[in-house]
Amino acid sequence: MIIFADLESINTVFRNLLNNAIKFTPNGGKITIDSFQNKNVMEIAVKDTGVGMNQITIDNLFKMEVIKSTPGTNSEKGTGLGLLLCKELIEKNSGVISVESELGKGSTFKIKFPISNLQH
Question: Whose CB among 11, 21, 72, 98 lies 3.0–4.6 Å from 31's, allowing a Cys bridge?
């Protein structure tokens, strides 16, 4: 699959999403990355079996006015800005990000990009 995107900004997005998955998944947990093609959209999902989030936290994840850093499972610290940066970089590359999560069961961050019409 080919997408038009800035490599460095997309690397930053995946680095942040993977760091968050590691940060919020206890030892022995599982992190998976999947990709799917659906018509003209490529979807990439970063899924973990970590601590998960409640609906209020999910609703506020991408809001600048509600920046909040949550300590990780091993008391790792953060700034609370990582997901805002991810959202900005994804949108600048014509993509969208969404999240599904349940407390105690983990989170899945889904990124969708339009697929280019170039062929190999």
Answer: 21
